[in-house]
Amino acid sequence: LLTVTVFLSTLTPKFYFALTVTSSFISGLIFVFEWWHFRKYGTSFIEQVSVSHLRPLIGGAENSPPAPAAFSVGENETSRQNMPECKVWRNPLNLFRGAEYSRYMWVTGKEPLTYYDMNLSAQDHQTFFTCDTDALRPSDTVMQKAWRERNPQARIKAAYQALELNNDCATAYVLLAEEEATTIVDAEKYFKQALKAGEMIYRKSQNCHSQSPQHEAQLRRDTNVLVYVKRRLAMCARKLGRIREAVKMMRDLMKEFPLLSMLNIHENLLEALLELQAYADVQAVLAKYDDISLPKSAAICYTAALLKARAVSERFSPETASKRGLSTAEINAVEAIHRAVEFNPHVPKYLLEMKSLVLPPEHILKRGDSEAVAYAFFHLQHWKRIEGALNLLHCTWEGTFRMIPYPLEKGHLFYPYPSCTEAADRELLPTFHEVSVYPQKELPFFIHFTAGLCSFSAMLALLTHQFPELMVIFAKAYFGTLLSPFIFTMKHIVDLLLPRPWHQLTLV
Fold first, then answer.
1. Residue 284 lies in a domain
2. Co-location of 425 and 370 in the same domain
3. CATH code of residue 115
4. ∠ Cα 35 37 38 (to 5°)
5. Which residues cross the membrane (predicted)?
6. What is the helix (H) or strand (E) element at residue 217, kind and residue range?
């Protein structure tokens, strides 16, 4: 003990400076390694070692490592790597510009559509409604220029010019229905005129499509116009309350043009069938389109979860389930919710009304906030209609993030979550809307601990370098206080163990 005391009294300020610098350096290396391990594997290395190796040594139960996450059948690593990220899709349920978007702007003074979104729509119109043979028909030439106009009034004026040249110009009626009509009833009238003209032009194109490649391109364009008009007519019927008529029109359209599944007409059909509460028909549609080889969407994943939740939600109680455990049907419902939340984690906040909705954009980003807004805008009423469905969602959706591997480059049931969705959603959604971002996992305790240790030791090194004498006095006082209980205990042990006469002699 005397040697330790003498040793501490002989230490110089250089020793304490070297000690603090070394401690800061070592703790900094540990912090960097912990951070790298967490970013790569999603767990703390120190915590993982303590649980896996140290706990069994001290008698604790060894936790078996979780089984590797199984991906959906058919979704191998190659397909994930080749899958494009942040691809923007046309919103299957996009609103009418004149009858809905413009009315919102008139009432609130806020622009519901971004320039980027409208520019994408202009590109879609030029792709769907124009072709190389437009020069043969003057009205189509005028409409080709109309789709490029940025000013809505200029587009409407060009549509009327096209109708003056040809009273059967279907695309002119389409433009007027989308942008000039201020009510759904007026839009439906324009679309009926477009349907009459479009069917006539489509039949002519069918008769001569094999004559040349130009005629084939013209047939594709006329087919696109006809499908677009029929779909919008079905959406008008749905908005005006004629649900069964809308369902029939959508089914006929899908049978007539089965190869145009990329237009996602089945999502319009799912929403209409949910409004009719025809859940058996909804399940039949899902069985066809919720396939491993087809791209998923929030509408498919969350509708499948809704149907499974419907079977158990009315009698579901978290307290009861925690006592007796989950039944098979409840497990299926919870797994379906986890699957849906993993595909698009932004939807639950809108369904649970934790975030306010805005009008959906004309284009959506799958798995992004824009898709979540578009889905919740039309499907929130269907979740509310089923008693207990939102309660089951509220109790289970956050558990998904404890199951999904971390970081975002990993996945469980789907390909990895794209990290570029936030930037793309900011381009699609209006500025007054707060874009939802992917939930981040909290940093482990040991990352905070090593970061604090590194900072504290670095601060001590700086203070020792600036005030060496003062810090040496502080260090000696600290170590003296720290060792005094140990010294007292050792003296007490010596008093008890040494023989009495010798002890008395040493005292004298």
1. no
2. yes
3. 1.25.40
4. 65
5. 15-36, 445-464, 470-490
6. helix 213-239
Q: How confident is the model at residue 65 (pLDDT cuts 50, 70, 90)?
A: very low
d(CA 270, CA 288): 12
Q: Give the H or E element holding residue 498.
A: none
Report the C-alpha gap between 316 and 335 in whole angstroms: 15
> Cβ neighbours of residue 479 under 8 Å, at least 6 residues apart?
8
- Containing structural domain, residue 117: 93-263
Closest CA to 281 of 334, 244, 234, 232: 244
User: Residues 384-409: pLDDT tens digits?
Assistant: 999 989 999 998 898 888 788 766 66
Considering the chain, what is the average pLDDT of its residues?
Answer: 81
Question: CA 480, 486, 489: angle at the middle one, nearest 5?
Answer: 135
Q: How confident is the model at residue 507 (pLDDT cuts 50, 70, 90)?
A: very low
* Segment (H or E) for 257: none
> For the whole model, what pTM was predicted?
0.73
Q: Domain total for the chain?
A: 3
Q: Are residues 228 and 365 in the same domain?
A: no
Does 318 lie in the same domain as 227? no
Question: Does 10 map to a domain?
Answer: yes
